Amino acid sequence: MQTKVENNKAWFLVMPVFLIVAFSAIIPLMTVVNYSVQDIFDPQTRYFVGTEWFKQVILDSRLHEALLRQFIYSLTILTIEVPLGICVALMMPTKGRGASIALILVAIPLLIPWNVVGTIWQIFGRADIGLFGAFMSYIGVDYNYASNPTDAWLTVVLMDVWHWTPLVALLCYSGLRAIPEVYYQAARIDRASRWAVFRYIQLPKLTNVLIIGVLLRFMDSFMIYTEPFVLTGGGPGSSTTFLSQALVQQAIGQFDLGPAAAFSLVYFLIILLVCWVFYTTIMNMQKDK
Amino acid sequence: MAWMSWTLPTALFFIGIGVILVGMTTWQILSPCVERRGFLPLATTRGDRLFIGLLSSAFIHLAFVALTDVNIAVATVLCAFWMLILMRWG
Amino acid sequence: MTQSSTTPISHNSRVTKEQAPVHSRAERKARNANIRGRFGLVLYVVLLLLPIYWLLNMSFKTNTEILSGLSFFPADFTLENYAKIFSDSTWYMGYVNSIFYVSMNMVISLLVALPAAYAFSRYRFIGDKHMFFWLLSNRMAPPAVFLLPFFQLYSSVGLFDTHIAVALAHCIFTVPLAVWILEGFMSGVPREIDETAYIDGYSFPKFFVRIFIPLIRSGIGVTAFFCFMFSWVELLLARTLTSVEAKPIAAIMTRTVSASGMDWGLLAAAGVLTIIPGMLVIYFVRNHVAKGFALGRV
């Protein structure tokens, strides 16, 4: 960190990135801000309304529900995926041919387009043509993700765990591979138990990757859209309508530009806050090292 | 540009942000700032404090809009003071 | 040995009394843990692949067979679903479109991210940390937030329904990710290499292309893989920015399904075909991808 050279010409190297991301990020963001303070019927007929949409959006109970649902959902999948991912990473072989095969197999769900993930579980969870649905009715559970909110939740969570645990597992796996063999030898000499090895050797080495993993998973689950959209369409009722879904419904479905823009901004501010907290934590941890 | 539906207040807002960024950069070139610790629980540079100030101001405005019927200008004045305190002692 | 498995506790205590060599017990324990680990891994992978297998299985069945009951193997093996996709241009062009804009995105992301990542890993400059954070926040921002003006933005510059529009839009999350990963890989390269090269009279571009890029080859491969991955799986932006000419396979799947009233076999076949490119790509980077998943920071 200390070895970096002070050089403002480095800005020339960063410029292309800045321009390309600014084109797709800053201009739309400005537009969203403009929309959020106006009532727009068409580009010529628009009225300045000030903060009215913000008031409406913040006090909207549907959005409170969506936000609450979103937090519960994100926390649920994190509490399942992180421990499960660590377990899978610990079980994966580190050397030889088996390591590559295990790696590729575990990574497969990450490479499936999100709508296909939704389709897979849409099929898999149906009692008539899907294995999981059929299995559930076989063991005597009345399971139907399309009409029962609890079942819909279960399926969406299960789908996310299926889809994203591999990411946590692969992150941890790469963290584990970076531990020098000497550490394990020392542990063997001390006759440390399996738990002690995990607690005092492996877990400390995993903290860094785990923070990245939690950051990515939290953020990505916070913007989840496609999978539940394909699987349940946000239903039954609005039981699986998360923030992005609610936003898209308002923006595209009802074409309420103003409220949708205000909603976007509130959503964006929340994301920005969470992202900043995580980023500062990561940076401070790297500094302490 | 027409499709962006500009209004005077939002245009002023973005010009303001732009001026602040340019100003901060010039300030940084004229007198480079060192990281320090104020009342915030972490070491910050000027830019960090500016970001914290802007983000918290945004949330303060939202809280004002949601919870009270007071004119939004009151929140803005309050935030300006908050920003000053943060930049000086944060 | 057979006894040991039935009464492990008494066996263990007896071994201690008999002063059996400690390491052999530890080794056996380690081996048992290893076997348990392998078993657990196999179980996990089987559960992981089961839904995918089910899709594959369905894609080889006719619709009547799918709806008539469950079976683990297609009784009436058919390639008809695949034939339908490969003979209809609206279907297979979807794959071509997707691959086209994903490749474009990959190239653009790498070209702009390489110099930027170098700057972040080697230099301090005004606003570097804030710039980095801003990039990161774009990776984290939900596409739904930008959805509203994207359509107008790309229409106004005349790029609507072109591949480059989707490629550019996807840059909003692939470029920050590429910078993040590459910065991690580049920080692992000692600075002395740069300095020696400059002393030897290399100019910056020459040094960068001739020496530095070959050094982080694996990092570039992994970055390309991640750009591919996140651009390939995204639907919301790709669907919004296209209508006919550049429509991705993901969008074609959703439309055709609702129109033809759930053609399950065809849907499954289309789904299976979307998985294949990803598997090919990961095969090429399998040796480096583990490090890439930690964003080059291990």
UniProtKB/TrEMBL annotation, chain A:
Subcellular localization: Cell membrane
UniProt-listed InterPro entries: MetI-like (IPR000515), MetI-like_sf (IPR035906), Sugar_ABC_transporter (IPR052730)
Main subcellular location of this protein, as a coarse class: membrane
Matches recorded under Gene3D superfamilies: MetI-like (1.10.3720.10)
PROSITE patterns according to UniProt: ABC_TM1
Membrane topology: Multi-pass membrane protein
Domain ABC transmembrane type-1: 67-278
Any Pfam family the entry gives: BPD_transp_1
GO BP: any one term: transmembrane transport
Entry keyword set: Membrane, Transmembrane, Transmembrane helix, Transport
GO cellular component terms given for this protein: plasma membrane
PANTHER family: GLUCOSE IMPORT SYSTEM PERMEASE PROTEIN GLCT (PTHR43759:SF1), TREHALOSE TRANSPORT SYSTEM PERMEASE PROTEIN SUGA (PTHR43759)
Entry similarity comment: Belongs to the binding-protein-dependent transport system permease family.
This protein's name: ABC transporter permease
Organism: Marinomonas profundimaris
UniProtKB/TrEMBL annotation, chain B:
Name of a matching Pfam family: DUF2160
Xref: InterPro entries: DUF2160_TM
Keywords on record: Membrane, Transmembrane, Transmembrane helix
Chain segments annotated as transmembrane: 6-30, 72-89
Protein name in the entry: Membrane protein
UniProtKB/TrEMBL annotation, chain C:
One Pfam family here: BPD_transp_1
UniProt-listed InterPro entries: BP-dep_ABC_trans_perm (IPR050901), MetI-like (IPR000515), MetI-like_sf (IPR035906)
Span of domain ABC transmembrane type-1: 95-285
Domain of life: Bacteria
Keyword annotations from UniProtKB, A to Z: Cell membrane, Membrane, Transmembrane, Transmembrane helix, Transport
SUPFAM superfamilies tied to this protein: MetI-like
Chain positions covered by the region annotation Disordered: 1-27
Entry GO terms, CC: plasma membrane
Protein's membrane topology: Multi-pass membrane protein
Location(s), subcellular: Cell membrane
UniProt keyword Membrane, yes or no: yes
Family, per entry: Belongs to the binding-protein-dependent transport system permease family. MalFG subfamily.
Protein name, entry field: Sugar ABC transporter permease
Source organism of this protein record: Marinomonas profundimaris
